[in-house]
Design brief:
Length: 130
């Protein structure tokens, strides 16, 4: 239980406790991140596995798929979807802001009581189960 009285992550966002539409939990998020980063790593082999190429490809994957499929390939495989806090389509600029902060790493590992990283808070998005 959190100090603000919420009993589960996403309660103050009016999201369900579990199942479809609930906050994406850590295990699924890490799995999706590993899958997307792994794909970027494999693709970067064409450029000699350069670290900047890996990050650039990862960013391209995120920015291309978040607005079109409402999630990266990793998100979709792990049953996740990215939406605005009000449940609407994330739009075009939110995935860019979210990805830029995700690449910096620190905003992604600092969470609030709803298990939303600072990158999601800054973009006004939430990662939910689909």
């Amino acid at each position: 239980m959190t100090q603000t009285g919420e009993t589960y992550p996403g309660e103050r966002l009016a999201l369900p406790r579990e199942g479809r539409g609930s906050i994406a939990r850590v295990g699924r998020r890490i799995g999706a991140l590993c899958l997307d980063y792994g794909a970027a790593y494999l693709i970067s082999g064409f450029w000699g596995w350069d670290a900047l190429a890996i990050l650039a490809i990862f960013a391209i994957i995120q920015i291309a798929f978040l607005p079109t499929l409402q999630g990266s390939p990793g998100h979709r495989i792990f049953g996740l979807r990215l939406v605005r806090v009000d449940g609407a389509w994330a739009g075009l600029w939110r995935p860019i802001v979210r990805t830029a902060l995700l690449i910096v790493v620190i905003p992604a590992v600092v969470w609030d009581a709803d298990q939303r990283g600072l990158h999601d808070k800054a973009a006004g998005t939430v990662l939910i189960r689909s």
